[in-house]
Amino acid sequence: MGAVCCCFSEPIDFDSEVTLYHFDLHRAVGRGAFGKVRVVEHKNTKKLYALKYIDKAQCIRQKAVANVVQERRLLEKIDHAFIVNMRYAFQDDDNCFFVLDLMLGGDLRFHLERKGPLPETTVKFWLAQLALGVAYLHSQRIIHRDLKPDNVLLDSQGNAHITDFNVAIHYSDRRPHKGVAGSMAYMAPEVLARKGYSWQIDWWSLGITTYELLFNKRPFDGKSVERMTNSILKEPVKFPTDTVPVSDHAINILKQLLERDPTKRFGCRSVNHLNDFYEHPWFGRLEWDKLESKELTAPFIPDMKQANFDVSHELDEFLMVEKPLTHSKRKANADIEKLKPELRQLEEQYIYRL
Questions:
Q1: CATH topology for 20-103+308-349?
Q2: What is the reported pLDDT for 322?
Q3: Residue 320 gets which letter from DSSP?
């Protein structure tokens, strides 16, 4: 038997399957298309995590059950220095829960909106970290499919981490994917052309993200889906260096990341996808081993004395939500066979994980 806590009428066995009762609930820090995020503290270890929770009823209404199950399965298989890793997964009658590494430094969209174009040295540091994360995902045969500033979180030391695997998928070399998923402004040409794509699309999205961090705007624009598609497929990339000075090395790497031919794209030209990064002069004498072990000091350290997220999330949780998150016991002896198909799928496939 493990240690117990007597905060409730019944003691908590910390050696049993994890439930929400194992955590103290703290402030709300974010929300996404399929769920919300709160800071939680494990009652036994006192370690802080991010709790992403997804309302089952809303998930079913949005026809997102398969996405949630897929995300949980993918996160089960990965663990990397520059990824927001999953530590636990469980559910109750109303919600599915992901317990993830806590990142209180904010996402890159938050900092971009408040600071405008970011310094080249900072963007270069983050690009190197994200390249390591992307290459790791590809080594696990995973395509993220939605890399963008919103899906990169900073820890308290300014290190970048990839998050949100809601539309991520496994890939096969034998069968290209044709499904359109992700955020259109960051989609590679081969996705929009619907001729089949694979892992190469993540390097394009990383190129769009890097461009946006440097110039505070995206390289392709359009007020309609048709115009945006045409821009991504055909228009040349322009670099507003007259308003935001950027080095020639930075421009060179952007041009290669935003190469429309995936066989010639930066990160796609050799068996080791990182060789292009290791050999590019923009990274100079970067010590990649020390970068991956987080021994290098980041050029930008978030101010941890302030909230690096939209504080309206917390107001929304307590003032606008009809049913705020609370600890609740599961109904005893539920008959899975009598559940609706979607709820049954969650019960059978969104399983406990420690």
A1: Phosphorylase Kinase; domain 1 (3.30.200)
A2: 54
A3: I
